[in-house]
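2024-03-11 09:14:02 INFO worker-7 job=invfold-0412 stage=load source=structure_tokens
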């Protein structure tokens, strides 16, 4: 292929876009291989992280519910709205579990098997969506933890 002076994209036989690039470095093949591994392993890694986060969220809920139920953490003399204040951490963690389930859930993906551009775009979009949902689950977990710590401090103030 002749060099193009204006660095424009040139279509190949498969309608792929090939860009002019700098001369190859000796370790370029290694880094290209690493990028391919990253692409192949990204969705399973995100799903595995969601499973781990679900385990953590389940443990947090169990500890918190045990604290509320068995330790008589909520004062019986408290008004209904004071008792309702102990519900938000559970709600946050339930929403976090929901986001994790969305990550772990498989989806039907319609792709054109002979179109690398279509496959690349669909898998990239799917990985980005799953990562965003995992991030949301993590933030819900942190929000629930912050609310739980604030409620523990409030409870200590109620008794003190």
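2024-03-11 09:14:09 INFO worker-7 stage=emit residues=160
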């Amino acid at each position: 292929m002749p060099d193009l002076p204006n660095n424009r994209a040139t279509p190949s036989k498969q309608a792929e876009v090939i860009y002019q690039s700098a001369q190859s470095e000796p370790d370029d093949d290694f880094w290209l291989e690493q990028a391919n591994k990253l692409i192949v392993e990204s969705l399973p890694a995100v799903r595995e992280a969601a499973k781990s986060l679900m385990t953590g969220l389940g443990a947090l809920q169990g500890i918190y519910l045990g604290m509320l139920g068995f330790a008589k953490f909520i004062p019986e003399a408290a008004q209904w709205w004071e008792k309702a204040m102990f519900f938000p951490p559970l709600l946050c963690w339930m929403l976090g579990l929901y986001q994790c389930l969305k990550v772990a859930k498989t989806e039907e993906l319609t792709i054109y098997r002979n179109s690398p551009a279509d496959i690349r775009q669909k898998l990239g979009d799917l990985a980005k969506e799953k990562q965003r949902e995992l991030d949301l689950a993590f933030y819900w977990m942190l929000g629930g933890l912050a609310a739980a710590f604030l409620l523990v401090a409030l409870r200590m103030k109620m008794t003190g």
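2024-03-11 09:14:09 INFO worker-7 stage=report msg="The first strand starts at residue 10 and ends at 11."
2024-03-11 09:14:10 INFO worker-7 job finished
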